[in-house]
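Notes, p. 3: input format for complexes.
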Amino acid sequence: MKTLLLVFGTRPEAIKMCPLVLEFKKHPDVFNTLVCVTGQHREMLDQVLNLFEIKPDYDLNIMKPNQDLYDITSNVLLGMRDVLTEAKPDVVFVHGDTTTSSATALAAFYKQIPVAHIEAGLRTGNIYSPWPEEMNRLITGRIATYNFAPTPLSRQNLLKENVDDSKITVTGNTVIDALHWVVNKISSNADLTESLKQEMLSFGYDVSRLEQGRRLVLITGHRRENFGEGFLNICHSIKHLSEKYPDVDFVYPVHLNPNVRKPVFDILASIENVFLIEPLSYLPFVYMMEKSHLLLTDSGGVQEEAPGLGKPVLVMRNTTERPEAVDAGTVILVGTDKDKIINGVSDLLENKNGLYDRMAHAVNPYGDGKACGRVVKWLEEKLK
Ligand code: UD1
Ligand code: UDP
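Output follows (384 residues plus uridine-diphosphate-N-acetylglucosamine):
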């Protein structure tokens, strides 16, 4: 029996790791599956744990208001020292590129415990964009013994860094597993759709507005490198668009980071067709993605999910570690330049030269929803 410790701390890691926890737990004869959350996020993490009904074995509970990178790194490193001493895992799993991931990988390395990296091999080639995520994934990648690359391109990135091919496998992205799990839940239960409508109403948005021919632009944003001028541009662009398209609703579940909330509420509160709401749990967020016409975001995960629902995505970032999506034609990078955001959204809303139709019908390169099964099978072989 091998003991696995899956560690995560933020909303997106939780969404992408919870289906894997459930998959490992299907094999209690082979794996003793333990979960540690760092609590880098609190409310937004708990929303996901509740949805997947996962109760962590360990919770470092590190979140502080407006924490900086030193806070997160040092608290995770010290907290993980004790958890690793007690749990004595054979393998530690981390995900992606957060500071929870890199600090946990380092903590495991100090105890010479092998690290398995889910969503390995994404690269922009610029350590300041996204910041600090590109460095987080480089650090984790150097430490990892087992690399689960979501796409052939991410595998290639690792090979270029001289990672041994026998330590890499291509699985697809586990976010598609999470997405399918939620979509099945929604489509198999008519009562749930009704309660989601009610839940949205309690969040301040009435989805029945869309039954009267209005369209929905769903927005998210939180990247550290966009703080300051980038966010001001984003907000002024949304304001401009809301005036240009009074028949479109702009719904923005605002991230809890105070650096995001201040400009967003200062500039966008009290506009009739802009709805600033609290972060949604994953189930209502997927429901809103399904209802949307397009998404405007700087999120990594949303770029992978929304195309799976046939929704075009405009990405408010200057670089991407997800070129597969750009090549497939499911996303377009618009950066944080005001004109580019306004023109990008306008072209899609007006289906300029058939742009909307092309993007909505492009094939999503991020997987088939069976990534978690592949991870479990491959690891079982490796640990034999
Ligand atoms: C973190 C990750 C980023 C990931 C993002 C997903 C790092 C350095 N950043 O960025 O890679 O894309 O999560 O959302 O790892 N807050 C709350 N409640 C919550 C969550 C956040 O109040 O549930 C507030 C707190 O004031 C907290 C602040 O947001 O201090 C920032 O959280 P933090 O995890 O440091 O950064 P994110 O921008 O969320
Ligand atoms: N998401 C959510 N509720 C929201 C906004 C986003 O559940 O109100 C989900 C979204 O579907 C995606 C993930 O959160 O799976 C993305 O998280 P975030 O944008 O915070 O981080 P990133 O993906 O950029 O690391």
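The two ends are 10 Å apart (CA to CA).
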